[in-house]
Amino acid sequence: MMRFFQSLSRGGAAALLLIAGCKTAETGEPPKPLSADADRIHRDIAWLADDQREGRGTGTAGNDSAAAYIARRDEALGLTQIVPGTYLQRFTARSAEMAHEGHPEGVPSQNVVAMVPGTDPALRNQYIVIGAHFDHLGRSSAHASDPDAKDAIRNGADDNASGTAAVMELARQFAARPARRSIVFASFTGEELGLLGSQWFVEHSPVPVDSIVAMVNFDMIGRLRNDKLIVYGVATAKELPAIVAAANVEPKLVVSAVGDGFGPSDHSSFYTKGIPVLHFFTDLHDDYHKATDDAPKINAVGEGRIVGMAERVVRAIADRPTRMSVVRSAAPVGSAGSREGSNTYLGSIPDMSAGDVPGLKLSGVRAGSPAALGGLEAGDVIVNFGGKPVTDLYSYTDALYAHKPGDTVSVTYLRRGERRSTMVTLGKRGQ
Predict the structure, then answer these.
(1) I want to staple 74 with a disulfide (CB 3.0 to 4.6 A). Which of 5, 58, 114, 370 is the partner?
(2) Per-residue pLDDT tens digits for 183-228
(3) Would you say 124 and 117 are in contact if contact means Cβ atoms under 8 Å apart?
(4) What is the mean pLDDT of residues 323-340?
(5) Separation between Cα atoms, residue 379 and residue 363, nearest integer Å
(6) Are 172 and 60 spatial neighbours (Cβ–Cβ below 8 Å)?
């Protein structure tokens, strides 16, 4: 499909847009948005998550190859360069982890950024950023859920080739039908090392940060199951709940709208700057950060439905006559957003859609894990861990990481409203 994009001249694309505009003028009806192309989405994910990219680790040849692939797509679509002379926003990626491993100098890497200018002269100098990270773990086992696999390639088809493919598909849609405000398409590197690329973007933004009216992030949207979609950040602007609800048209997705604008993904870098954010997410699964997160497991048709909903959300924000009313909140104290992590292991799988449930609701437990041996099941809600109250994911993570492998701790949980307790002996991640 890349040959098609490369052979489509900018003049030919302009002619197609002119023809579409004429038809709209003749009928007097507003143009309908383009449908998301599930085949194109799957091909992009398969290319990005191919073994030849070796997991797209930041600073590797596979990561550079992925960046070049995205940049070629931007060029083929005729997107505007907002970094002078290039689609690449180059920087040196540095993290505490690299310093601990003896590489304080970091590694050269790059974000990929491009823009579709807005059509309204009064609004085109305001921007919506559509973003996703394209890096993954590569061959590193540092943050892997299967460190026993050692230097196996972890392709990250869902995390986050799926989000990257969504950004490219939305770029195609908005290039064909621009909005009133300008849309910036950003593919970030270094997310797995601590949101490095998105933090660099907001600190060295190619557009004025105070002119960014919203950021929409896609991270792990390739495993839609039972039509369930989680959308974080709906409480970061007063208008967002209604916008998200209106964009969920038939056949509807089962949307869990969660208010929090912080979290361990790139939208958090923007919300810290006072920018309203949304994060689309189809929840964790057993292949998370493992060598088994591969393209054949992607639900491309489901992702296409998510992209369709996201296009309606972005267009509603982009075409509003006024900016949204931002709602600011303090960042939660805790380690849930940290990538330094811990090797203490319970085997719980959080239900990330249960944002309003006090405690930590489980969507499942891993077979043979300490959680399973302790009798915990899907649907249980952990409310106390080792004597510390658990009110959300952050407090749970703090309580878990306060212990070390081999510790025996008490866990209090609710099962169908009944309060129960059990003792678990914590394991070591990867064993």
Answers:
(1) 114
(2) 999 999 999 998 999 999 999 999 999 999 999 999 999 999 999 9
(3) yes
(4) 67
(5) 6
(6) no
The identity of residue 320, as a single letter, is R
Whether 131 has a pLDDT exceeding 60, the answer reads: yes
Fill in the amino acid letter for 129: V
Distance CA 406, CA 273 (A): 41
Written as six digits, the tokens of 34 are 């383009």
Q: In this predicted model, what pLDDT tens digit does every residue of 389-418 receive, in sequence order?
A: 998 877 888 899 889 999 999 999 999 999
**Whether residue 20 has pLDDT greater than 70:** no
Helices assigned H by DSSP within 94-227? 96-100, 162-176, 196-203
Element containing residue 424 per DSSP (H, E): strand 418-425
Q: Which residues contact 307 (CB under 8 A, 6 or more apart)?
A: 36, 41, 166, 169, 170
Cross-strand partners of 112: 88, 187
Residue 70 in 3-state DSSP?
helix
Name the nearest CA neighbour of 282 among 240, 331, 233, 222. 222
| Terminal-to-terminal C-alpha distance of the chain | 42
pTM of the model: 0.80
**In the chain, what are the domains?**
33-318 (3.40.630.10), 344-428 (2.30.42.10)
**Of 187, 167, 171, 165, which is closest to residue 42 (Cα–Cα)?**
165
Give the CA count within 13 Å in the CB-facing half-sphere of 223. 19
